Known about the structure:
The protein is mainly α. 62% of the residues lie in helices and 2% in strands. It is extended, with a radius of gyration of 25 Å. The chain starts with a helix and ends in a 9-residue tail after the last strand.
Amino acid sequence: MAAAAAAALRAWFWNERFWLPHNVTWADLAGEPGPPGSGLQYPRAGHVLSAFPLALGIFAVRLLFERFIAKPCAINLGIQDSGPHRAQPNAILEKVFTSITKSPDGKRLEGLSKQLDWDVRKIQRWFRHRRNQDKPTTLTKFCESMWRFTFYLSIFFYGIRFLWTAPWFWDTRQCWYNYPFQDFLIMFVHHLATIGLITFSYMNNMVRVGTLVLCLHDASDFLLEAAKLANYAKYQRLCDAFFMLFGVVFIVTRLGIYPFWILNTTLFESWELIGPYPSWWLFNGLLITLQILHIIWSYLIIRTAYKALVRGKVSKDDRSDVESSSEEEDVTSNSTKGVFSTSSNGSNRINGHVASGQWTEEE
């Protein structure tokens, strides 16, 4: 009974008339795209499993890179591995911090004050120091950003290296000629490295247009990490310059090139050359949703850039900023409400891009 139900679910999920154009079946994609014995394959769902060992390998490379390359660079730039002042050990406050709240309200502060016979401001200071303990040091953040900068930059130029000779890079109509019977060998490793982001296009063999989307999105990410590196090294002018350049490239690629190049081919050229089918609507729905997010992120970047011009500098990543007063912590806790999602380390981000106010250093 369970086997029959599983088979029915599998057949429903992999319905050919949803995923593939008319007159194309999964069996058609099971053969070799090249001459017999060439060893070439079309994308298959099982290939996704290759992402897991690859991810472990990349993680190991990251650990080695941060320890033996990024950390020495940070130390040479004078970035110290010293953390904030640690809170005085206190079992009662520690239990409240870990089990109830990291930012107690006035009523709870009064209760703790009576229980411990401590001044309210002393308890506020304890919670402030305790929160700061969990934030990474500037050295840790520098190493993280240096890794992401190196990875994003390498992936971007890797993509450009192979797409430069690909016909669909210059003529997006080539993404749909003879679809889905297309060779994808030259971008196989690239797709494995980013399989989590393009699972749909890989399984459905929309590899050509997937490479264009990936390369376009890689164009600005390394500039943001460069801005962070300059920020951690206290090169404020360089940080500002990189951030402004990041904003320009982000807006040009996400609000200009993406809709007029990517969406144009996925919505109109693909309709003309292969026609719509059920998963076509899903694919384009996701791309349009991404464009809406691009607009939101661009607005936040512009707002951050405007504030930077007014204040004279780009505000900083707040993951390890040390809180300096109880009044400021009240303002900070209230200001995080709204459209921003809060990560486990306390920084508010959308899609990994720092939103306005999220690099703010508390004065």
